[in-house]
Amino acid sequence: MQESIEQYMQTVGQQARQASRILARASTQTKNNALSAIYTALKNSEAAILAANQIDMTKAHSNNLDSALLDRLELTPARFRGMLQGLNDVISLVDPIGEITDMAYRPSGIQLGKMRVPLGVVGMIYESRPNVTLEAASLALKSGNAIILRGGSEALESNQAIAKAIQHGLQVSGLPEAAVQVINTTDRAAVGQLITMSEYVDVIVPRGGKGLIERITNDARVPVIKHLDGNCHVYVEAQADLLKALPIALNAKTHRYGVCNAMETLLVDEKVAEEFLPRIAELYEEKQVELRGCPATRRILENAVPASEEDWYTEYLGPILAVKVVSGVEEAIEHINKYGSHHTDSIITENYSIAREFLAGVDSSSVMINASTRFADGFEYGLGAEIGISTDKIHARGPVGLEGLTSQKWIVFGDGQIRQ
């Protein structure tokens, strides 16, 4: 069996590499036609895709998947419409491929610049979210990349149904069907093969739990674009407008629990803690959110559970929130940089200078002023969709859209020059 998996993955890799050569030269019109054909195929397949998702949801409930995974797995009609809207947004985005910048003449007479090009073949490994199948495929196609998708076993029926519509759209448009391949086995050996096929795969993007991403990062022989977890913070500063802070802190935590841009730790300046904490705690109580607080927090909120050192590091992905009272912006920045995951952190303040200090000091891929951390998302950032979020500092950082799936190569124009 191991041998057949290896052969299967080698074939998938070879086909992806061949398809990537064609996609790299495809015109914007050709790529948009393919995406439009996929849109039509998906719309015509909505009932079948939602039915497939119900099969996955039934299995997931019987297997006692936790609430965060169930939330990510479910495809409602509203979420399906959101998927289609994301696809439309990708179609309308400017194609980055072929863009030439920084043209300049050198003393030798040559003219050089940089051209934006696809990365080549993207390998995507993800859990639960079937919408990622479409998001990743659409971004890869628009940016001229072939993509190999390996979803989790819990979303197998949903992913196969979405893949069928994508394949139909590619076939109609004349682009190679191997431009988007969804792995048809749940055998984990397929993942081991994918992340080590450096001759066929140019970059791996894992999306899922911390355990999955740690495994990929440790075992991959292909460059990885990743974030391990989303331990996001909101800091209510002393000069915050509390009428802004209350809905932001509530939304950042309770809008959706099982997502990487949900707030997991609330920091409150000691100057406003007495006024702010009882008011926000009342709102959290309505949502049945458990609060785990530092000693200063617990002096104000008697019902708060004592927070341990581990709580400051934890991504709960559920109705639990760590709360800490801090002495000012310096302590807030220090706490975030020590315990956070470099994902998304927000300050609520009306003081421009302190806001600028927070922006400069917090070492995260998205830093916000007076906004919910839930905005850290490719769709909300105008990227159409995202293939993932990167907390790395090299190549791509934050939500990764079209440009994150490209690189630049030097181009040189000469007229007979030779090196003297």
Q: What does this protein look like?
A:
With 420 residues, this protein is of the alpha/beta class. The protein contains 15 helices and 16 strands. It has helices at 2-25, 28-44, 46-62, 67-73, 77-92, 131-142, 156-173, 189-194, 210-219, 242-254, 273-286, 295-300, 309-313, 329-339, 352-361; strands spanning 100-105, 111-118, 121-126, 146-150, 180-182, 203-207, 232-236, 263-269, 290-293, 305-306, 320-326, 344-348, 366-369, 388-390, 398-400, 406-413. Strands 10-9-11-8-7-12-13 form a seven-stranded parallel β-sheet, with helices on both faces. The chain has a four-stranded parallel β-sheet with strand order 5-4-3-6, sandwiched between helices. Helix 15 links the parallel strand 12 (344-348) and strand 13 (366-369). It starts with a helix and ends in a 7-residue tail after the last strand.
User: Assembly type of the shown chains?
Assistant: single chain
**Beta-strand content estimate:** 15-25%
CA radius of gyration is 23 Å
Strand order of the largest sheet: 10-9-11-8-7-12-13
Structural class: alpha/beta
What is the total tally of β strands?
Answer: 16
What is the general shape?
globular
Distance separating the two termini? 59 Å
Q: Helix proportion of residues, in percent?
A: 40-55%
Tally of contiguous helical segments: 15
State mean pLDDT (0 to 100 scale): 95
Query: Which residue ranges are poorly predicted, with pLDDT under 50 across at least 5 consecutive positions?
Result: none
Biggest β-sheet: count, sense, barrel?
7 strands, parallel
